[in-house]
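Hi all, posting the design record for the shared folder.

TITLE: backbone redesign
STEP: 1 of 1
STRUCTURE INPUT:
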């Protein structure tokens, strides 16, 4: 979803236009890179510098900044470098650093447990530990376990959302329009359905407002709708917008959608993730015929009385959580893992995210990554405060290439022309299937870093980051992909 910002007196509004997912930021319709004379033939390492700069020095890129490093994997030898030690905004390439640290600190078999504890008088305490993969399916499993334990009635549900102590559910360095969309959903200890809801708008009869369908019944209960949209005649332009105040729960739908147009889809972040979680859990209890009586007044019992774990579910292992984190560039997964790392250390007066960032730095330093090569503000790359050098990324890639987790780490990366955010990039080119790389896209920053199994050369690691360009993302990505094709064409000579 592309986001347009409008500021009015006393109200800040977000306008969402559909059919673009910034969370993944994939160039699904980008043109394929030009396979020019240099990239169409094998080239020697001595020719690489001139060939790359033929791309980066084009007039349309004169105002932008390029940071590039290309190295052999083992032993690590630099064969091309351009401002590789300077800082750039890396976008989702931050996930390369985060997931490398998570694998080494937490282990490939690390799982995240969600538990329900109970008392003898029907009071339940649900304890979340930040499982980003938990959905209604797992809530149903919890309810079924309660039923099997003989729980037939609940008089009080207590949500324990304190596992990530001192946690900011919204990263303070994110731009405010990001936190309203599904790719910027809040991060807390109790997460369900990625803390996001979906909305679909479809045309009705000409002159009528657009129809509204929520992705779930619970989502519909969380929002009020002010629908001033209009179904128009066939062929008319689509101008439909969905907007809401920063802290409001009223969605304003406006604009037009022609009667012959397909429906428009939107993803929104939930406003109150704990209330959202409890709403879904109550529905799971009702489905299993467990009565839930909402008390008029309730005082939570002391935590000491919640000794018995009545039900529990666990996430898939970290090795599989990384697939969603890197392959699909899932921000929520990355931020939840960052906070899981933060639980491992004690830093007074620090948030879970701040502690997690400290663990990332300690772990990467142990792996041989220069701690002066980056300054991180989050774990996902959504923050514009992140600063990373291409060299720091290449050091991380090289370290992981020789680590015990090399296969797991590399398997989590998108493959050119095959999977994840690279599915439609470099498709039907010599790079397809031989390049595994993490994409990155936010406004003003494009990045691509990863591994190349060049058919006629040694295995490579590379990092390419472009900042401050006035060109659109598709144009920059095309140029980046041309450079990748040059690297694939390397031969020993």
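Okay, here is what came back for every position:
SEQUENCE:
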């Amino acid at each position: 979803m592309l986001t347009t910002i409008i500021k009015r007196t006393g109200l800040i509004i977000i306008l969402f236009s559909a059919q673009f997912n910034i969370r993944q930021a994939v160039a699904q319709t980008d043109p394929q890179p030009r396979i020019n004379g240099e990239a169409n033939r094998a080239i020697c390492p001595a020719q690489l510098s001139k060939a790359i700069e033929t791309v980066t020095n084009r007039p349309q890129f004169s105002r932008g900044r390029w940071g590039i490093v290309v190295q052999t994997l083992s032993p690590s030898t630099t064969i091309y470098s351009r401002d590789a030690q300077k800082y750039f905004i890396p976008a989702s390439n931050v996930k390369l650093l985060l997931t490398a640290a998570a694998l080494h600190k937490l282990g490939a078999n690390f799982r995240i447990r969600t538990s329900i504890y109970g008392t003898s008088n029907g009071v339940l305490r649900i304890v979340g530990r930040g499982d980003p993969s938990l959905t209604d399916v797992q809530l149903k499993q919890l309810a079924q376990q309660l039923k099997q334990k003989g729980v037939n009635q609940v008089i009080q549900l207590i949500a324990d959302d304190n596992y990530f102590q001192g946690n900011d559910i919204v990263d303070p360095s994110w731009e405010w329009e990001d936190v309203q969309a599904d790719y910027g959903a809040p991060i807390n200890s109790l997460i369900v359905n990625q803390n996001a809801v979906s909305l679909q708008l479809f045309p009705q009869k000409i002159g009528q407002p657009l129809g509204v369908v929520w992705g779930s019944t619970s989502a519909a209960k969380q929002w009020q709708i002010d629908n001033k949209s209009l179904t128009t005649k066939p062929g008319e332009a689509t101008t439909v917008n969905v907007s809401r105040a920063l802290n409001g729960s009223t969605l304003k739908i406006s604009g037009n959608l022609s009667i012959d147009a397909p429906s428009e889809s939107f993803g929104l972040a939930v406003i109150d993730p704990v209330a959202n979680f409890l709403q879904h859990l109550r529905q799971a209890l009702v489905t299993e015929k467990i009565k839930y009586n909402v008390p008029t007044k309730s005082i939570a019992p002391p935590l000491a009385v919640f000794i018995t774990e009545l039900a529990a579910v666990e996430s898939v292992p970290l090795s599989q959580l990384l697939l969603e984190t890197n392959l699909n560039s899932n921000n929520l997964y990355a931020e939840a893992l960052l906070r899981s790392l933060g639980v491992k250390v004690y830093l007074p007066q620090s948030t879970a995210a701040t502690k997690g960032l400290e663990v990332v730095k300690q772990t990467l330093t142990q792996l041989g990554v220069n701690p002066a090569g980056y300054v991180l503000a989050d774990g996902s790359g959504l923050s514009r405060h992140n600063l990373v050098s291409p060299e720091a990324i290449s050091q991380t890639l090289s370290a992981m290439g020789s680590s015990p987790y090399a296969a797991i780490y590399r398997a989590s990366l998108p493959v050119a022309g095959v999977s994840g955010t690279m599915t439609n990039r470099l498709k039907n080119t010599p790079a397809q299937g031989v390049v595994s790389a993490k994409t990155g896209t936010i406004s003003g920053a494009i990045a691509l870093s990863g591994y190349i199994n060049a058919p006629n050369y040694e295995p490579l690691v590379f990092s390419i980051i472009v900042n401050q360009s006035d060109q659109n993302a598709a144009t920059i990505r095309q140029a980046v992909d041309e450079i990748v094709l040059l690297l694939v064409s390397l031969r020993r000579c």
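COMMENT: The longest strand covers residues 65-72.
Let me know if anyone wants the other runs.
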